[in-house]
Amino acid sequence: QVMDSEAARLGRLVNDVLDLSKLSAGRLTLNCEDVDIKSVVDGAVAASKITQRPGGELNLAAFELSTQIMF
Questions:
Q1: Nearest of 39, 61, 40 to residue 51 by alpha carbon
Q2: pLDDT for the residue numbered 3
Q3: Alpha-carbon torsion 43, 48, 49, 53, what sign?
Q4: DSSP character for 7?
Q5: Average pLDDT of the chain, as a whole number
Q6: Which of 34, 47, 65, 71 shows the greatest Cβ crowding within 10 Å of its Cβ?
Q7: Under a CB-based contact definition with an 8 Å cutoff, are residues 52 and 39 in contact?
Q8: 70 phi and psi angles, rounded to 5 deg
Q9: DSSP letter for each residue of 9-62
């Protein structure tokens, strides 16, 4: 089950990178629409790994993908 969920996550990541590539090349357009911000934040939290270091310090490790999208 873990392998299946990780394979699905990797597939989504690859598709996201391909979409960003298409967007950068001008072959993909974005449509503005309302979104549920709670689900966006929940997804971002789920995609990150939060660990607690000795002494109580929290460490957030996440994949970073930076791009500039102009509307």
A1: 61
A2: 86
A3: negative
A4: H
A5: 76
A6: 47
A7: no
A8: -105, 135
A9: HHHHHHHHHHHHHHHHTT----------HHHHHHHHHHTSEEEE-TTS-EEEE-
